[in-house]
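Bench log. Compound arrived from synthesis this morning; before running ITC I wanted a structural hypothesis for how protoporphyrin IX containing FE sits in the protein. Inputs:
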Amino acid sequence: MPTLTEALASVVISYILYKYIEFYRIRSKIDSIPTVGSDSFVGAYINSWRYFINGRSFVKEGYYKYPGAAFKVPTLGTSTGWQIIISGKAMIDELRKAPLEAMTLAEANVDTLQTDIIITKHSRVNEFQTDVVRTPLTRALAGRFGDIREEIIEASKIYLPVGDDWEALPRAHGALLHIVCRTANRLFVGLPLCRDPEYLKIQEDWTVHLFMDSLIIHAMPSILKPVVGRAMSKVDSLMKRVQTFLEATILERMEKDAKYGPDWEGKPADLISWLLDYAPPENRTVEDITVRVMFVNAAAVHTTTMGITNVLFELAARQEYIKPIREEISEVVRTHGWTKEAMLRLHKLDSFIKESFRLSGMGNTAGSRKTYKDFTFSNGVTIPKGYSIAIASGAIHFDPAIYPDPDTFNGWRFCETEDADGAKTEQWRNQVVTMDPTWLMWGVGRHACPGRFFAVNEIKAMVCHILSTYDIKLPGDATVPPAGTWFGNGRIPDSEAQILFRKRRSE
Ligand code: HEM
């Protein structure tokens, strides 16, 4: 009879042996793609943690070693344990055009976020909410700009200090998160729900739970994932709670649709109406619409918050930009009022935001996809079925051949050109929302971010309100913005960093 210790030891040894055989089986299918760092069983495991902490250096190394080609890095964030990364115009273009039957973002998300375990039946669904964001939500931005601006102003009164003297806003990132979440939900679900503290807290928190839970599930032995992973996740109960907030509204809208047809008088122009308009019959349920409202919040809230936080850190650190941007705002608003049209004409601010996005980044890679079948690029690189692929966006955004002097912040990089004699001409090129193979903030192709127009309008409207109402600076008059933290492929702004505010005195 083996002792308990012997029995446990044999379970552990069998598990390691199984992982060892599995590792080489999975790797053998992508052996032709070079690895950054070690690709041995132990070396790759160590590197997957190093990639989690400092993925940027891996992507940069691969980008310069294998230009226009593919390389792979070990990662904790996919079920194969590998992330294949590509660069070069031709490969990016082929990924952009890859058919949905070959690879999708949704499948990459199912894998990275372990949604089959965490949100089970809602994991692999018809993604009509993407069409809703792309079309009716984006079209409504002009008509609902007044509401968006009003919510920014009202939320700022609560979350931003407004004394005559400098006052620190501790954890600026957290305060901005509340403003962004309220503003987004003014558009998504309207008043009064967009100001309900419990509803907002869930919308702010649930995405964080999803990310953290998925990381823990990736680290578990496969056999435990479905039961332990599911049991520990709070996401299901949060979804049920949001359903109680939305149920009466969704039912009332469905009733009115049934009674008066789809265009009844007084129908609110919000996410709930648009989702019901776009939902196939089998998806017109309270539960399904609730889940979509949560998915859109997940896509919209933390991304936009990171964007505006980085922009404000840069502005507070680089005081010399504040005056020209304020002048531009006054001039444009004098002609166009507080409208979406005005936001479109803020060229200097647009360039500043784009440069802030480029330098502070948010992701190290973009255009994540997982393959449903083998996919071969025209240069002969094959991505086998079931593997994850992405573009080396972080390295591309710092490539000196594309962005001269890439490590230097130049807020006018995208709104000025310099001739051979160094004379500068104002010329607006490449807005922040415009995509191309060298500007990958929004991903690529059919999965490219459909919410980018809303995100940029919201960020511009927030900057306009803040610069018109307050002076801002960093503690100690620092001229370098707070550094962010990298986790795997993402960069999170310093959540402890402060911004100082006072009632506007300067021009
Ligand atoms: C600064 C803010 C934002 C950033 C940086 C951002 C970035 C991205 C990126 C990189 C993707 C994946 C693209 C790809 O894989 O090719 C994406 C997808 C998506 N984003 Fe955004 N996003 C932002 C804000 C928003 C907002 C405000 C919304 C909604 C109103 C939104 C809705 C979506 C949706 C629905 C998708 C999925 C598209 C699909 O599956 O085809 N995003 N976003």
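What the model suggests: The longest strand covers residues 366-371. The CA atoms of residues 132 and 169 lie 36 Å apart.
ITC booked for Thursday regardless.
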